[in-house]
From TrEMBL:
This is Phospholipid/glycerol acyltransferase domain-containing protein. SMART domains: PlsC (SM00563). Residues 81-197 form the Phospholipid/glycerol acyltransferase domain. The lineage of its organism: Eukaryota, Metazoa, Ecdysozoa, Nematoda, Chromadorea. One of its GO terms (molecular function) is acyltransferase activity.
Length: 373
């Protein structure tokens, strides 16, 4: 591994430091609210973390000059929903924050992500994602079924209307994943895909059925993501080479809950049909000349401007860089601050060892209160 690129190093270092100290100085003092005022805890945690998401969005758009093209239907932040998207690279979820910001900045406070369980172990960022009550999945149906059911019950009990981002493919389209997808297709007599992976229908169907059982599903948003020029596959590529895609395209199509089949077999057929259509759309997208690559909206007449009013990004970038410098200065020059940081870190480590994360601590307390009532 060569020396890191300065742009990539600055990008990830700023995100790491701001998320680490943010979880220490902003979220940790609010932890008692999980017990005493769980609804207030969710309000503060969602707002703090949502505003932090402005930072990577500002770096991509305002600092790095990336272009984000969004077409299709508006995502409603006031209704519980499931968002499904093809998973081309390991950075899709981060670029999606820019799309949410363009549609409605409040979506950054109401989006919840289902992601690999290993990510909750990252100091700082992992702690913040635990506080955000993201769904950490192990790719083991038995274990993940409990996680999905418990988290959706938790959202429902607190009266929060979240939009849950799920990648039905289960992983990004790297070489190994593409090979496994092709082998699966051959074994089951399915078409070979060149731009998407075959979706995992069991997990998708279960998610839909649980959300239905909890009366926690109004809409399903099918999102297609495409990269017209550079495809940057991983965080390491950003760190080593400082490479970022010049542009990212998103198209959003909304389905109402009643539009989907009621049984598991029907849901499996539905998601497979959606993915066949997605493969065809992406095939047409990539065979077009690079300069003219774009999605024709599946539905809706929305076509958000590529340029973004910079004031929101400017304020977020200024706030997080300034406060991160203040936090670092305080840790270096004030011994009592170092002691505080130490105890905060010990708490997060203990919480993960004892409860498997802050999100599970909140779940257990929520269950106890529900049983008492």
């Amino acid at each position: 591994m060569g020396l890191p690129n300065l742009t990539g190093l600055f990008f990830w270092l700023l995100l790491f430091l701001s998320s680490f100290f943010g979880s220490i100085f902003l979220l940790f003092p609010l932890i008692p609210l999980i017990y005493f005022a769980p609804s207030l805890w969710r309000t503060f945690a969602d707002c703090f973390i949502g505003y932090w998401l402005f930072l990577p969005s500002s770096l991509c758009d305002y600092i790095l000059g990336m272009e984000f093209h969004i077409t299709g239907d508006m995502i409603n932040c006031s209704e519980p929903a499931l968002i499904i998207m093809n998973h081309r690279t390991r950075l899709d979820w981060m670029f999606f924050w820019n799309a949410l910001y363009k549609m409605d900045p409040w979506l950054l406070t109401t989006e919840k992500i289902s992601l690999k369980k290993a990510l909750e172990y990252i100091p700082g960022a992992g702690w913040a994602m635990q506080c955000a009550a993201y769904l950490f999945l192990e790719r083991n149906y038995k274990n993940d079924a409990h996680t999905i059911s418990d988290m959706i019950t938790y959202y429902k009990d607190l009266g929060r209307h979240y939009q849950i981002l799920l990648f039905p493919e289960g992983t990004d389209r790297g070489e190994r994943a593409a090979k496994r997808s092709d082998e699966f297709a051959i074994q089951h007599g399915l078409p070979i895909y060149h731009f998407v992976l075959h979706p995992r229908t069991t997990g998708f169907s279960y998610m839909i059925q649980v959300m239905r059982q909890k009366s926690y599903l109004k809409n399903i948003y099918d999102i297609t993501i495409g990269y017209p020029d550079d495809i940057v596959s991983s965080e390491l590529e950003v760190l080593q080479k400082g490479r970022f895609p010049h542009a990212v395209h998103f198209d959003v199509k909304r389905y109402k809950e009643n539009d989907l089949p009621k049984d598991d077999c029907g849901l499996a057929d539905w998601i497979n049909k959606i993915w066949r259509e997605k493969e065809n759309r992406l095939a047409n997208f990539y065979k077009t000349d690079i300069a003219h690559r774009k999605f024709l909206p599946c539905s809706g007449k929305n076509n958000w401007p590529v340029s973004t009013t910079a004031i929101g990004y400017y304020c977020a970038f200024s706030f997080w860089t300034t406060i991160s410098v203040i936090w670092i200065y305080s840790v270096i020059y004030f011994p009592f601050v170092r002691i505080y940081v130490f105890f905060a870190c010990v708490f997060y480590v203990y919480c993960h060892w004892q409860y498997a994360g802050v999100q599970n601590l909140a779940l257990q307390l929520s269950k106890q209160k529900r049983q008492i009532n």
